[in-house]
Amino acid sequence: MAPWRTLAMSVMALGAVVAAGAVVVSGWVVLPPLLAATLVLAGAALSVDYFGIRRRVTDWSGTRRPGPAAWANLHALEARFVRDRRRGSVYAAASARALLLALAELDRLAGAGAAVDCLGAEAISRFRHDVCGDALRALALSELGRPAEAVRLDRALGDVGAVPVVAWARARMAERRGAVADALIALDRARPVPGSNTAHDLAALRARLSLRAGRADLAEHVLRGLAAAAGRPWVERLADGEHVGLAQLARRALGVDAVYR
Question: Is there a contact between 207 and 249 (Cβ–Cβ < 8 Å)?
């Protein structure tokens, strides 16, 4: 249920109690408790993160090349999460989510065990859906060797395959299972913003999966289109990668004859 709807329904219920009480006694007698209760509800909503008024607006914006700034940001988020969790802060879940996104950006979700467990506990009492966080949490569970939990969480997401982060997570999970065809189907359902970082990530993943499916021609075509659509850094990253076949296709898509550096 939406956070503001929850708060509004609570106030309406209190209003009904006041109306019933006003029939018996004066309205001035029941009005002060109503105002006090409304203030308490508003204060709780403002202070507790999972009511949603302190909105966690950051969503997955794609992967990024590791560098000093990226690692410094990751270490800062790790320290904040550890600090919030040790203190029992109500913002520990928000810190865990920020850390989860940072790990996903660097493709290091195998180290997200503590953040995943914290978000799993928070999800029990959450008043709103977090599609992005749950999709990344499912992928992290898969990479942590907890596939049964990952499958349950993925099923709970429902029919939201058009969301880029969900498509990316489902394709990666299917790839880990060896179900390349399912991974490609998940990518087909995605509707990313053209030219965005997420669109480039999905294209790079499609190229890798196409090569695994034995379609080197399709993989090269995808990489050429990615390089031409302002996604050259993603192709360069693949050209520098450890996968020899994919690196060769990436160099070809970049028009580099010698070994790419």
Answer: yes
pLDDT classification of 48: cutoffs 50, 70, 90: low
Among candidate residues 44, 73, 40, the one with its CA nearest the CA of residue 58: 73
Q: Where are the alpha helices (DSSP H) in the chain?
A: 3-24, 27-47, 68-87, 92-105, 113-123, 131-143, 147-157, 164-177, 180-189, 197-212, 216-228, 232-239, 244-254
By the 8 A CB rule, do 258 and 250 touch?
no
Alpha-carbon distances of 207 from 142, 147, 201, 212, rounded to whole Å: 22, 25, 10, 9
60-106 per-position pLDDT tens digit: 888 888 889 889 999 999 999 999 999 988 888 889 999 999 999 99
Instruction: Specify the amino acid at residue 188.
Output: D
Q: Which of 110, 1, 104 is nearest to 59 (CA)?
A: 104
> Which residues, 6+ apart, have CB-to-CB distance to 125 below 8 Å?
50
Compute, in degrees rounded to 10, the torsion defined by CA atoms 161, 191, 56, 62: 100
| Residues 6+ positions from 211 with CB-CB distance below 8 Å | 219, 243, 245, 246, 249
Instruction: List Cβ neighbours of 243 (8 Å cut-off, separation of 6 or more).
Output: 208, 211
Q: What is the distance between the alpha carbons of residues 51 and 90, in angstroms, rounded to a whole number?
A: 11
Structure tokens at 18: 């006041």
Which residue's structure tokens are 């997420």?
198
Q: Can you read off the two tokens belonging to residue 257? A: 């004859």
Encoded tokens for 34: 């109503």
Residue (of 245, 239, 173, 187) closest to 216 by Cα position: 245
